[in-house]
Amino acid sequence: METLNDRSRPTSKASEAPSEARPDPPRILEFGLMPLVTNAFPERTTFLDTRLRWADVRTRAPRSGSLAARVLRLARRVAGIGHACLVQDYDIVVARCVGPVNSAGRAMPVHAALSLLGLAFRGLVLFAARGPRVRLAILDVTDHLTIHPRDRSFLRRCDLFFKRELAANPWNTLETVLPRGACAGHARQDPACLALRAKLRPFALGIEAAALKPPVPASARRYDLFYAGSAQGIAFRETLAGILPRLATRGWRIHAPTHRLSREAFADAIARSRFCLSPGGVGWDCYRHYEVAALGSVPIFDTRPLTGIEPFLHGREGFYLDPQEDLERALDSLLRTDDAAVDRMTAAAQALVTRVYTFDALARYVIAETLALGPAPRPAPSAPPEEALIPAEAGHRHPS
């Protein structure tokens, strides 16, 4: 499979002719707080870190130097970002959405400042992606089923909008950003609304590849079921609090600590459990889903109301619980799964996470979907078409 870092290897003089030479893969500009595409394609991606802060973002320690030196350093970073956007030496722009202001409980001046920062960021990204030549891919990793109105201009101007909490009915995701006066019933017949719908793609939080560990055989695991989490007013989680003690009285090895575990103890509990409950929180998509599979256990989810890139299949890579059913009886039935089946599901879940939900896989998915649109229109008619750098994975089970 050809990747972003592959280069053409002509095998004859004819293939070396300028008219038949294959162009380099597209160049990418990524904005944001944390690199995603940059880590997957470091040789072809320029990352613009928009965390313009006085303190180190990792250690939170103040940066050394006098005030003048720090101002000069910050000015140079801003000038570098502006120059990169002005030169436009790239073919694809990847950026995170703006999302909510997240200023609850803060003073109005703070709210206004954060709003202006979001406005400036949005303007910078749209400036970087100006013109017909550059593709724009927006990543929305917020917890909301709907797209925030502050990202309406991103949705209109982008080529693809990757939504983490993409509703099973995508029109629900578009409810807050439809054109003025459009209702859901009208939107399904309006060409402008259909064009917005066509830009949506599912996305996920994902997990780092280094988190995947060889699984412990099911027969050697210490617990049948592990769950750690607070209810936080979520009905499904509140129901679990009464069910788990009753399952323990039936003889199942239930590990449901009420105190907060250390990072090491939490990972060990997952690895030593045949099954792990992983209900959704504010949003359904959760880092724990992929963490459970990566550490070698079988995840049990609540009902999935989302469109996924390639969802965990019930009975193959995990189990889903319907809150409308008798949850205690359903869990008791699932816990009776034999060890051989648990081992098969563990292997299948890890294979799915490796193929689809590692950060590297998600980055390749974003670029593959963007390139599947075809080359962006070129201002010069003689310009050669872009090379399709990564073929879309045939295994992805999602609507295009």
From TrEMBL:
<feature type="domain" description="RXYLT1 C-terminal">
    <location>
        <begin position="260"/>
        <end position="302"/>
    </location>
</feature>
<dbReference type="InterPro" id="IPR057538">
    <property type="entry name" value="RXYLT1_C"/>
</dbReference>
<protein>
    <recommendedName>
        <fullName>RXYLT1 C-terminal domain-containing protein</fullName>
    </recommendedName>
</protein>
<feature type="region of interest" description="Disordered">
    <location>
        <begin position="1"/>
        <end position="26"/>
    </location>
</feature>
<feature type="region of interest" description="Disordered">
    <location>
        <begin position="376"/>
        <end position="400"/>
    </location>
</feature>
<dbReference type="Pfam" id="PF24785">
    <property type="entry name" value="RXYLT1_C"/>
</dbReference>
